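Exercise: predict the fold of this chain.
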Amino acid sequence: MAASGPTGVEDFTAGPVRLIDATEVLGAIGVILPPPLGDASLLSPTAALALAALMPGAVVVHARREEPIVPPLALAGLSVVAAVLGVLTIA
């Protein structure tokens, strides 16, 4: 997998990498899709919190590899903000 793009996958087998990738894609879809469709109002905040829960692991992996940790920290912050705003729009 490392030869085809992502640099942080050398430390992991293919299974966990695919699981994390699938979780991130499904979380992004869960954050983006429900508001325009007008249904499943709690799905977006829940998906955003799930994405935020993944990011500490990304920070640890990037820190161990001595790579910048700002991108996963920023994504965690944006996910939390999206969750809060999503809950506020429901209430």
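Check your answer against the key: Helices lie at 14-32, 34-37, 43-64, 70-90.
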